[in-house]
Amino acid sequence: MSYTGHYTVLKHECVDSLIEKAPLDKKSYYADLTFGGGGHTFEFLYRNPLFNVRSTDQDPDALKNGNERIQKEQMGDRIKLIDTNFVHFPSMIREHSPEVFADGGFQGILLDLGVSSHHFDEAGRGFSFRFDGPLDMRMDYESDEFQTAEEIVNTYSEEELRRIFEEYGEEKNARKIAAKIVTERKEKRISTTKELENIVFHCYPKEHRYGKTNPSTRVFQALRLEVNRELEVLSNTIDQLIPLLKVGGRLAIISFHSLEDRIVKNVFRDASQKTELPVEVLTKKPILPSEQEILDNSRSRSAKLRILERVETKKDKNKYKQ
Ligand SMILES: C[S@@+](CC[C@H](N)C(=O)[O-])C[C@H]1O[C@@H](n2cnc3c(N)ncnc32)[C@H](O)[C@@H]1O
User: Which residues line ligand 1 (CB under 6 A)?
Assistant: First the structure.
């Protein structure tokens, strides 16, 4: 499918922070594990000819579009775009790019989580209730590793459906929606985004059907997280990235909802309490998009950026206390 594009969120805040300590006279390496439309990756490459990026994405459309752009911009081997789920990055990158570790590791690693505008804007991907499309929602639609939303909606038990709508969607009508799905699918398999939207719509009380948020928003979010196992992948990846940083290197993560942000915050806090690989959390509070950015791109409104730095030794907070 052709790539419909993506508006990069917190571009300058992320890149400025990750390059702050980069040496000006020798090569630095960055990892952008969520390449998407390449907004962050190319910003690193434009900032300094000595910057190199190792990027990943699992989405075939993003990879195809990215490889075409890399060719067009003639970046040579300064950028390598790897087709993988980023959960595999820590175990494969030392062998894939030994040059990074000959230099001590990455100067910066970035995760800009979730799906891109392309996913929401392309009807055929099934992420959005704005269009009628197949209930798919897999980022990596060429792999058998992930079930589609259609498989989940038509095979999970009522209890399992309710759990994911409650846990991943914080959906108040989860019980009613799960029950209605199970009744409807006995009559006919639920296969399209509009069929599911219609079911959810009728489970909402009449006075809440036409509010600011479409009744299907939470159910679609929950299904997307379940299909791509996004929270599990995130939890299994973050602390594995820290040993890939050189001393002074930084890890930046942009999240888009409270479930993701909680994982990032907790893993950062736990990492900062360990002594064997010392890190400092640089963002006591997350960095948020400016009012102007939210006006320019309303999808940025829920973004939160947290950053940590690998340090030589921890500052001893009690050093001067009696
Ligand atoms: C929010 S977009 C990134 C946009 C990018 N920073 C830009 O400015 O163009 C997230 C991208 O990460 C990819 N992605 C999400 N989770 C992934 C994972 N576990 N492994 C690999 N890629 C992933 C998605 O396919 C999507 O293209």
Answer: 6, 8, 34, 36-40, 56-59, 62, 85-87, 112, 114-116, 139, 233
List the residue whose alpha carbon is closest to atom 22 of ligand 1.
57
Q: Is 136 annotated as a binding residue?
A: no
C-alpha count within 13 angstroms, C-beta hemisphere, residue 1: 19
Kind of pairing, strands 106-112 and 245-255? parallel
Ligand 1 nearest-atom number relative to CA 118 = 27
Q: Quick one: pLDDT band at residue 213, thresholds 50, 70, 90?
A: confident
Q: Which residue ranges form the domains of the chain, and what is each CATH number? A: 11-117+230-310 (3.40.50.150), 147-227 (1.10.150.170)
Check the annotation: does 39 bind a ligand: yes
- What local confidence, expressed as pLDDT, does residue 206 receive? 86
What is the Rg, in whole angstroms, of the alpha carbon atoms belonging to the chain? 21
Top mutation candidate among 45, 57, 117, 121 for ligand 1, by most atoms within 8 Å of CB: 57
Is 16 labelled a binding residue?
no
The per-residue pLDDT for range 277-311, each reduced to its tens digit, is 999 999 999 999 999 999 999 989 999 999 999 99
57 is in an annotated binding site: yes
Give the closest residue to 196 by CA, choosing from 148, 138, 228, 150.
150
Cβ atoms < 10 Å from Cβ of 3: 22
